[in-house]
Structure formats: C-alpha cells, structure tokens
C-alpha cells in the first residue's frame, strides 16, 4: 500500500477560521472556543452543529481520548484534543451520505482511525490519519447488519464486527486470526435489542453485550464474558433508557450504565464496589459522549448538542 504524506493540520485555541460548510472534501473549520462554565461542568467547547456526529478515540496517540465530529453530508471529519485544546485534523474528507462512522484503532498503532460503514451493502472504508488505506470497499455485512466497535481478541486492534438484529447473530473478522470469520449461533439478541460492547470482566477483550430496555421490571444488560464464557445479567434502567456503559470508576472494567432520554438522569453501577451513582446532566436532544479526556483512567461524562454545536464535559466528579 502506498503511504501518502502525513497531514499535520493543527490549530490552537483562539485562531478564528471560516465556518463549516457542507462542501464535499472542503477543508474548512471553526474556532475551537472554551466557554466560561458553571463549577460542575469542567469544560465546554463550541464546534460543529446540525448534521455532525461525535466519534470518540485517541486520534493523536497521547493516551487521552479526543473528540471527532463527522459530517455525513460532506464526509468531513473535524478532530479536537480536549486535553491540549487544539485541532488534530480539520476537514479530513473520508465518507459521504449514507456512510456511518465507526470508532476504533484498526491497525493497532495506538491512534484511532477514520472508519465508515455502508449499512445498505455492508462495505467498510478505513484509513489512518497519516493517509494509509486500511480497508477500501471491504465487504463484510449486509443491509440488515450494524457495526459494533471493539477489540474482541485482545490484540489492541479494533476488529470488524457486525450484528444482525433479525437473527441475533454476531459475526467478526478477528485481526489475531488473520481476519478469519467467526460467528455466534443465532439468538444472542433479536428485534428491539441493542448490541453494544465493553470489557466488563477486565481481561482487555471486548465482551458481547445486548441491552433490552423493555425487560421487566428493569432494563437488562446481557453480557457474554470473554474470560469465562459465562452470561452475566445486570438490571438497570427501563423503557426510554439509553445504554452508556464505560469505565467510570477506573478499575479497568466496563460499568453498566444507562441514561434516561427524557429526564437525562444518568445511573451507573460501579463494578469496583457494586454501588450505584446517579446524577442529572444534559437535556433532550443531546448526544452522550464518553471518553477519558484527561488521561486519569476514568471515563468523563460529556454531552454534545447538535443544535448548538456545544460539547459540555462534566468530568468524573459525579462518579464517587
């Protein structure tokens, strides 16, 4: 594969550039602006707006998570480091209408890549920020399958994984097996069940997880642990709950967590002590954004408002 010249397009806070426009592959940006915030909110950043979707990952390899905004209509990515308050990439075109972003480090170099998936036909397009093509029109999936991000074999590379809701079948191309195809039997999931992943047992491998918000009396996480193969069930949330699992307490295990999409009440069951933490943050229409933005090993809670383009970071102060 040909390696192109690396793009280093940094823009420190305070420099004003042109507003984002929906021009295919147009390099354009916005001011990365910090707002004066209430004491509970540790950081607010203004960028993006309607039509942008946040994609979290460590794009510069410094050990802290960054926030990318993907604009589907133009295919442009705008990536900012919250810890350094500077741009990592501006207007990097990779995608188009109908291609959905997938988070992950697919080549294992310690930096998140740009990845998009065409759900209508099951095509993957992946490249690194230094312009190396990792996958081009790679067929894996179909119109009824959705991608699930995770490192399911523990080799520090994100694997290609798709989940078919109609049958409850998970299929994966595992990087440690030279991308050999593996799959689950039918039935681990189904209609109206949400497929997610996380390292719930702390073995550095992503576990398969299904969330059922309609289970009674509470919503249920069905977690198939990679370490033992056991099925673990966590009851949390209910109708109208959005699953937001992550490592909130810094014990290297994913915690079960939900967000009520009407009240924006967060509930976290901490794996370190099996206690619950609850708090309210955000408002209807906000998108939850989860990552370790300060490098302390704990997930910081953030929300992104597509209408205003405001990213608000609560930090982990609410998780005690």
What is this structure, in a nutshell?
The chain has 320 residues and is an all-beta fold. The protein has no helices and 25 strands.
How are the SSEs ordered, and which strands pair?
Elements: E1 33-34, E2 43-46, E3 52-57, E4 66-71, E5 76-81, E6 86-93, E7 99-101, E8 114-118, E9 123-127, E10 133-139, E11 145-147, E12 160-164, E13 169-174, E14 180-183, E15 194-198, E16 207-212, E17 220-224, E18 231-235, E19 241-243, E20 256-260, E21 265-269, E22 276-280, E23 287-291, E24 300-305, E25 310-315
Antiparallel strand pairs: 1-2, 2-25, 3-4, 4-5, 5-6, 7-8, 8-9, 9-10, 11-12, 12-13, 13-14, 15-16, 16-17, 17-18, 19-20, 20-21, 21-22, 23-24, 24-25
How is this structure best described in words?
By secondary structure, the chain is mainly β. Helices cover 0% and strands 39% of the residues. It contains no helices and 25 strands. It has strands spanning 33-34, 43-46, 52-57, 66-71, 76-81, 86-93, 99-101, 114-118, 123-127, 133-139, 145-147, 160-164, 169-174, 180-183, 194-198, 207-212, 220-224, 231-235, 241-243, 256-260, 265-269, 276-280, 287-291, 300-305, 310-315. The strands form 6 sheets. A 5-stranded antiparallel sheet has the order 1-2-25-24-23, with no helix packed on it. A 4-stranded antiparallel sheet has the order 3-4-5-6, with no helix packed on it. A hairpin with a 4-residue loop joins strand 8 and strand 9 (123-127). Residues 1-39 have low confidence and may be disordered.
